[in-house]
Amino acid sequence: MIPLSLPLSLPGVYAPQDDTDLLVHALGREALAPRARVLDVGTGTGAVALAAARRGALVTAVDISWRAVLNAKVNAVLARQPMTVVRGDLLAPVSGRSFDLILSNPPYVPGPPPARRRGPGPGPGAAPRPDGYRPARGAARAWDGGWDGRLVLDRICRDSPSLLLPGGVLLLVHSALSDAARTLAQLRTAGLRADVVDHRRVAFGPVLRSRSDWLRGRGLLGTEGDRAGGTRTHTRCGTGTGDSVTGAGDEKEELVIIRAERPR
Questions:
Q1: Predicted TM-score (pTM) of this structure
Q2: Do 145 and 107 form a contact (C-beta atoms < 8 A)?
Q3: Taking the CA of residue 146 as centre, how many other CA atoms within 13 Å lie in the half-sphere pointing to its CB?
Q4: Residue 211 pLDDT more than 90?
């Protein structure tokens, strides 16, 4: 279903998936002026950044992972598309700059503190948070969004509005499990016109399957009894797209595209 053909996806770098596809389609609906200034935050393989570069945009792509930066740079060379790829923590490398369009597919999967998971934790170098959650390391940084899925989302909502030019747009993809209503509220409070403009229901991948009991315990998923009876299940998505009906063994999440525009 993902119409993306990248020549390289390194191990440990988030490969293009449904959320990537949804964001690329949202990008395709935006009117981009020649040489529009575009920022891709958390670029990974560079799939979304390259989609913008192919339309003649001046693209800056940022990722905290050295491997992702290398991956995106190599893909840009192989695709013969000029773009600037820099390593850094979210928006820090572009502080003081302005953009016509900001794109982001950030880590958004809610999860328990590492001590409660199977397997190794994030390692001794990760900084602690007040709620006891420590940021993930390695490949898990591409999807691990903290206790409520908003470890990175909240920072993007806080810092991106000041980087948008008048009329500039932020396109953000994340799971409804990470509270789309909160994203909308934060962006609107910052003065942007924000709405959910697209959504897609996709089957759970291995990460969400491994956390389904924990998510259900937090009330973010329907109970086993709900699913066995094919009854309506509720997630705290706040997208206005309605409840979902799921059958036994049918676990899906809703991905949403949030579009936020700075008034001219």
A1: 0.82
A2: yes
A3: 20
A4: no
